[in-house]
Amino acid sequence: MKLRLLPVILSVLVSSSLLFGGYFAYQSFAMESPLQKTVSGIKGVELVSMDLSSTAATMEIKIEKGTSLREVYHQIQSQGGTALARKDLKLKVTNPGSARLEQWWSTALFDIAQAMETKQYAQIPATLKQKAAQADQTGGAAITATTEMDDNYVYITLMDGDASKYIMLPRAAAKMGVWPNE
């Protein structure tokens, strides 16, 4: 039996285009579009980019001043539906920061890491308040720090005028390295 080359190649091309085309259409219409609509529907949040894998949904967002990162995370998690089923939701806030905020955070990081490691979460707001008072004594605009917590994360919001920094510290420590979503 002799196989003809042209029909075999055409069959492979048609089959692969249907298979991969169907996968990408499913990924786009059934997974990404509902998540984009969910994030777009949250007041004070702008979706910058999104990456969906089989184990995680990673989103880069911008948050307006005064919007709670904890509430945003909870709304995306609860309204994500089947698109987030069995996936880890990872948010990265891309608001413009400042060198002053980064320097201030680096001075507070050791005390915050110690409170996280010893699971003494009540020390975090007190530490941030103390560090903010020290920064105010050195001059410049006041840095404000707010903290929130849920079952999974400790959320820290740092504000310095128009500059901001949003941090999500996982309550279950990572096996190696520092916090992955800072």
Structural notes for this entry:
There is one protein chain. Helix 3 packs antiparallel against helix 4. The chain starts with a helix and ends in a 12-residue tail after the last strand. It has four helices and six strands; from the N terminus they run αββαβααβββ. It is α+β, with helices and mostly antiparallel strands. The strands form two sheets. It has a three-stranded mixed β-sheet, covered by helices on one side. A three-stranded antiparallel β-sheet has the order 4-5-6, with helices on one face. The chain has two domains: 89 residues, Alpha-Beta Plaits; 72 residues. Helices cover 45% and strands 24% of the residues.
Give a topology summary.
Blueprint: H1 5-40, E1 45-52, E2 56-63, H2 69-79, E3 88-93, H3 99-117, H4 123-137, E4 144-149, E5 153-160, E6 163-170
Parallel strand pairs: 2-3
Antiparallel strand pairs: 1-2, 4-5, 5-6
Helix pairs in contact: 3-4
Shape: elongated
Largest sheet: 3 strands, mixed
- Kindly report the spatial arrangement of strands forming the biggest sheet: 1-2-3
State the separation between the terminal residues, measured CA to CA: 63 Å
What is the number of helical segments per DSSP (H or I, 4+ residues)?
4
User: What quaternary form is this?
Assistant: single chain
Could you give the order of the helices and strands? Answer: HEEHEHHEEE
Poorly predicted ranges: none
CATH topology annotation of the largest domain: Alpha-Beta Plaits
Using the CA coordinates, give the radius of gyration: 22 Å
Question: What CATH architecture label of the largest domain applies?
Answer: 2-Layer Sandwich
Relative helix content: 40-55%
Average pLDDT works out at 86
| Beta-strand percent range | 15-25%
Q: Could you say which structural class the secondary elements and strand pairing correspond to? A: alpha+beta
